Amino acid sequence: QVQLVESGGGLVQAGGSLRLSCAASGRTSSINAMGWFRQAPGKEREFVARILWSDSTTDYADSVKGRFTISRDNAKNTVYLQMNSLEPEDTAVYLCAAKRSSMGTYGYWGQGTQVTVSS
Fold first, then answer.
1. Contact 19, 8 (CB under 8 A)
2. Residue 74, SS3 per DSSP
3. Which of 2, 61, 65, 70 has the most neighbouring CB atoms within 10 Å?
4. pLDDT tens for each residue of 5-26
């Protein structure tokens, strides 16, 4: 099992920045990739970014490219999401997720952290 705990959410004005953290514990050696997703009220959950555990290859949703950066700290088993130039449309609950294979689905999820961007 893998446990994920997010932190770093909050309220920020448009144009501001936040950094989210996701600490993984448990069987972290089984992780293939970790990702960030978000869900706004009344909307479906959407992919934001992901990073491969093996070589730190990253991938982003078009809506956040150039503004968000996903990174990881191997020693701390922690993944970060640096969010710059935030927009009100970025307001959502942000969830961290992990999966054990490149072809599989994300089977481990954190509880989420709220990000609110005011205009």
1. yes
2. helix
3. 70
4. 999 999 999 999 999 999 999 9
